[in-house]
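Researcher: Let's do a round of design. I'm pasting the structure tokens now; please hold your answer until I've finished.
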């Protein structure tokens, strides 16, 4: 019952006004894409949209999970490591990133980047298939429709933002961003994930029903001559005045699938060592560089990071903070040396496994009077102005017997671009935490 007389009439009156206003707007759409007969492709329909949606339903959660793991891999709870210090509650899932297996970050970040690139044609096809919905007129006939449209705009806007900024970051176009990539990509990811979850909850029953309405096998056997529009649907995707088909659904699916396979083939080589590296044409640092021991990828050269060769010469010393020890490279080479084959994997998706030699971080911790397993390490570099000129390593990372202060790679001295005279190599750490041109190590009790 209404709380006061006339309340029920007021609600109904408001709804009636909304419907009358929506009906008037609906009968007077602006010209162009807001008119239903503007969209004439005979291929659009709930079934085709659902096929693309099913692929994204499988792929996007993998991209989201591996992306969130990438952020966790930075151990952002350690001092100096948080690329997004304002993340707050978004860091609820952080955990002490493991060092085993050594290839884990290589796989998760490789999957994040390669799958993201591979799904671009599918995402574009999905957006093409539902674009009439973005121009529905009037924009909302009811409050519920207004909420649905708002969630759709967040979904589409979030997807475009995440994919565009991700691709630009992969291509190392950092300077084009008027903002910091890391927080923008993280916040955008959570907005997109929330909108995606709402969209799936609302549309999953309809998607299942649409997928059952047609046989994929039959569509893949149907050529241009047999291509017909789908029956009218409640989603309003089927053209009201369809044109003659110039492409079959089989052709469209083949074109999108072929585009995804092409992108996959031109990028997957950046995560693999061997001949396939030559096929990584879409990766700026994924290809072969030569056959020498130091001929492998670098994101930033010594000159780009302001490392003066004079500072890495005979006068260079590694400082162990809190002690009087200033170790020359010769003194470091006199310590017990260990050799391990470990990958470097970078956030841009490229990775490579090389063989590194140097003293263990655990041994250096002992030299500094610390107990491995009970101390973290704060690493400082000679580089100037870089976002990762300093980094913290967890107690677990310091204690791992494969964590090295590498002095040599593949049997040769490090080149200057690869961190000469010394660099950090930690199993399963993001590439930027394998700090190059190390000048000081500080071993300290665990944070918090």
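Researcher: That's everything. Go ahead.
Model: Designed sequence:
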């Amino acid at each position: 019952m209404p709380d006061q007389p006339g309340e029920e009439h007021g609600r109904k009156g408001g709804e009636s006004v909304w419907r009358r206003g929506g009906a008037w707007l609906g009968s007077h759409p602006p010209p162009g894409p807001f008119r239903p007969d503007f969209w004439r492709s005979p291929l659009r329909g709930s079934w085709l949209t659902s096929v693309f949606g099913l692929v994204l339903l499988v792929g996007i959660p993998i991209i989201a999970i591996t992306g969130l793991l990438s952020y966790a891999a930075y151990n952002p709870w350690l001092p100096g490591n948080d690329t997004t210090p304002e993340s707050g509650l978004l860091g609820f899932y952080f955990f002490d990133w493991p060092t085993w297996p050594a290839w884990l970050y290589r796989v998760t970040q490789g999957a994040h980047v390669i799958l993201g690139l591979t799904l671009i044609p599918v995402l574009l096809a999905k957006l093409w298939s539902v674009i009439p919905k973005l121009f529905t007129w009037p924009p909302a006939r009811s409050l519920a429709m207004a909420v649905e449209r708002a969630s759709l705009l967040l979904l589409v806007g979030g997807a475009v933002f995440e994919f565009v900024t991700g691709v630009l970051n992969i291509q190392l176009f950092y300077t084009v961003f008027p903002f910091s990539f890391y927080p923008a990509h993280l916040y955008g990811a959570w907005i997109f994930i929330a909108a995606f979850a709402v969209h799936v909850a609302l549309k999953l029953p309809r998607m299942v029903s649409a997928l059952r309405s047609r046989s994929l096998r039959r569509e893949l056997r149907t050529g241009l001559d047999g291509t017909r529009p789908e029956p009218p649907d409640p989603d309003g995707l089927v053209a009201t005045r369809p044109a003659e088909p110039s492409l079959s659904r089989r052709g469209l699916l083949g074109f999108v699938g072929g585009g995804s396979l092409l992108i996959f083939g031109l990028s997957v080589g950046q995560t693999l060592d061997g001949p396939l590296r030559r096929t990584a044409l879409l990766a700026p640092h994924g290809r072969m560089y030569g056959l020498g021991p130091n001929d492998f990828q670098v994101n930033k050269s010594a000159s780009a990071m302001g490392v003066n060769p004079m500072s890495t010469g005979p006068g260079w010393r590694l400082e162990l903070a809190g002690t009087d020890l200033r170790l020359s490279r010769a003194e470091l080479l006199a310590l017990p040396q260990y050799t391990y084959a470990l990958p470097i994997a970078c956030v841009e998706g490229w990775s490579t496994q090389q063989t590194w030699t140097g003293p263990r971080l655990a041994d250096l911790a002992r030299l500094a009077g610390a107990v491995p397993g009970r101390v973290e390490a704060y690493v400082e570099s000679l580089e100037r102005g870089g976002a990762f000129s300093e980094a913290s390593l967890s107690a677990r990372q310091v204690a791992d017997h494969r964590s090295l202060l590498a002095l040599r790679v593949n049997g040769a001295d490090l080149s200057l671009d690869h961190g000469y005279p010394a660099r950090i190599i930690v199993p399963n750490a993001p590439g930027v935490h394998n700090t190059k041109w190390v000048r000081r190590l500080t071993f300290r009790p665990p944070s918090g």
